[in-house]
Each structure stands twice: as structure tokens, then as C-alpha cells.
């Protein structure tokens, strides 16, 4: 869209989607998994409705992965300042119903921040959607395979894989999260190895498509319903 198209759109609708991501290790998958998934999900959920999907914010809060080359961290205070600036501009331009589709668990400080931001901007609503552990998606993941986590099969979609990279045909035991949270970046890399938190590295594409279909439907419902009058 160009600016004139957005201006025309705002005459009849005030919804938009802001995807939040992260550039970080995902074992054998792309460093951009957390950017690819919320962006594609937003576009798939919007369909032909015309609701604008803004470019994904490609860097997030991921200090624990700094020892993995290519993983880029933004400090919490910096990140929240960026999110504030984006929301301020969307509000100023007339967007009043903003769906944030978050692709990275480390970004959750922004979820609490949005409540604070809304209190300072009466009349503008923000929904914060952690798509991967939303009720319907998480139920589908658990029904498919309960051993699922970061960089495991549950993030291995055809659009997050890398050409020429083969997945190990093994299943990794789940990590000790309480222990892991105490480790610095170098020690965490030594503990995790390739980076999978637990589970198989890949499942059949049919399983992944079934999960994706649930994710699209759940996200679309948030976009279309449940806004305060």
C-alpha cells in the first residue's frame, strides 16, 4: 500500500496488524523464524479484507542467545521505547484497533506495556496475541505431540526451513527451564547445543498445516471479533 491507500482505508476501518518478531537462533531453522511466522500468519489471517499488515519488527528481546552468531538482542527499555513510538504513530494517524501478533516469547514485556499505553490513549484498543501458545493453537500442538518447544518441530514449517539443511532424525529431551534461566549466554549455548529446547526436529507437513490452519482461524477471529464498542 502507499500512503494514499492507507488514508482512504482509514475512512471506513481503523484496524491494523503489527507483527513482532526476533532474529535469533532456531537450531537448524532460519534465524528469522520468529519474523517469518507472525508476518505470514498476519497476512493469511487478513486474507482479502484489506486490513493493513505492517512490516514485522525484526529484532526483539533475546539476551540469552547472544552467544549464537546472528542472534541480535534489543534491551528491554529500548524495545519498549520502539513499541511506544510505533503505537503512538498508529494512534496519531487514526488506527483505533491494533492487533499485535507476537512471534517471540522474549517480547512479552511489551504485553504489559500495551495495557499501560492504552490507559494513556482512551479509545484505542490493542490486542496482544502470542500466536504459538494461544488457547486453540496450543491445544492443537499438544494433541499432535506434547514434547514441543523452541526450535523443535513446532516451528518447523516449510516456510521456516533452509534449503540444503537436513534435520536430525531424533527427539530431544526437554530442557530444565529453571536451570536454564540461571545461565549466561555462553553457558546457555554449551547447555543447549544446537538450540532446540526439546522435541523432535521435524514432523510431517500435514501435521504442520493442520496447526497452521488453526492459527490462521484463531488470529482471524481476534481481528474480526471481540473489540469493545
TrEMBL record:
Protein name, per record: Creatininase family protein
Entry keywords, A to Z: Hydrolase, Metal-binding, Plasmid, Zinc
Organism, as annotated: Deinococcus psychrotolerans
Cofactors named for this entry: Zn(2+)
A GO molecular-function annotation: metal ion binding
Alphabetical list of Pfam families matching this protein: Creatininase
Similarity annotation: Belongs to the creatininase superfamily.
UniProt-listed GO biological process terms: riboflavin biosynthetic process
Amino acid at each position: 500500500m502507499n500512503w494514499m491507500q492507507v488514508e482512504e482505508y482509514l475512512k471506513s476501518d481503523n484496524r491494523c496488524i503489527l507483527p513482532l518478531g526476533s532474529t535469533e537462533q532456531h537450531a537448524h531453522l532460519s534465524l528469522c523464524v520468529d519474523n517469518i511466522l507472525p508476518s505470514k500468519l498476519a497476512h493469511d489471517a487478513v486474507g482479502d479484507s484489506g486490513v493493513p499488515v505492517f512490516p514485522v519488527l525484526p529484532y526483539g528481546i533475546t539476551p540469552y542467545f547472544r552467544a549464537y552468531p546472528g542472534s541480535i538482542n534489543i534491551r528491554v527499555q529500548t524495545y519498549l521505547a520502539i513499541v511506544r513510538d510505533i503505537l503512538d504513530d498508529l494512534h496519531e494517524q487514526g488506527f483505533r484497533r491494533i492487533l499485535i501478533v507476537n512471534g517471540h516469547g522474549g517480547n512479552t514485556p511489551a504485553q504489559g506495556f500495551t495495557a499501560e499505553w492504552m490507559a494513556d490513549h482512551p479509545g484505542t484498543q490493542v490486542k496482544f496475541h502470542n500466536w504459538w501458545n494461544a488457547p486453540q493453537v496450543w491445544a492443537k500442538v499438544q494433541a499432535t505431540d506434547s514434547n514441543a518447544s523452541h526450535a523443535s518441530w513446532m516451528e518447523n514449517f516449510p516456510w521456516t526451513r533452509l534449503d540444503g539443511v537436513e534435520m536430525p532424525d531424533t527427539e530431544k529431551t526437554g530442557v530444565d527451564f529453571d536451570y536454564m534461566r540461571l545461565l549466561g549466554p555462553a553457558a546457555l549455548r554449551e547447555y543447549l547445543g544446537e538450540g532446540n529446547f526439546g522435541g523432535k526436529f521435524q514432523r510431517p507437513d500435514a501435521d504442520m498445516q493442520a496447526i497452521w490452519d488453526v492459527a490462521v482461524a484463531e488470529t482471524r477471529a481476534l481481528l474480526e471479533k471481540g473489540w469493545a464498542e
